[in-house]
Structures are given as structure tokens and as C-alpha cells.
Amino acid sequence: MQSVFITKISRQGTSLGVIIPKNILDAYHWQRGDILIFGFAGGDQIYLKRLTDMDIERIKPNAFPIS
Question: Which pLDDT tens digit goes with each residue over 53-66?
């Protein structure tokens, strides 16, 4: 069964962000500080993926900003 959550875009400092419910983070074992990538999946959809330590090692330094 697929769960659907409704949220809205909100201001996060000088940026905009979306809140991901904690039960989704827990289900994927994602934690604060994890590095995520996202992209367009077509139409109005995006995908979101956590980078593993192995993924991060394969990426050149400064390939993406980490804040």
C-alpha cells in the first residue's frame, strides 16, 4: 500500500523547502545530515535519492555543494 502525504513549499532561511514526514525518513533510514540528490522524473514529478558513502567517494571533490 502506498502512502500519500500533502505538504507545501515553505521558506527555509533564504531558500525554499519541503518538509518530509519523519515516518518516511525512518522507513528509508534517512537521517539529518544525509546527502541527497534529486532530479526531474517527468511531468510534475521529482525523484530523491540518498547518496551512500561509496557514491560520495566516487564523486570528485566540489562536484556539488554540501552545506
Answer: 888 888 766 656 65
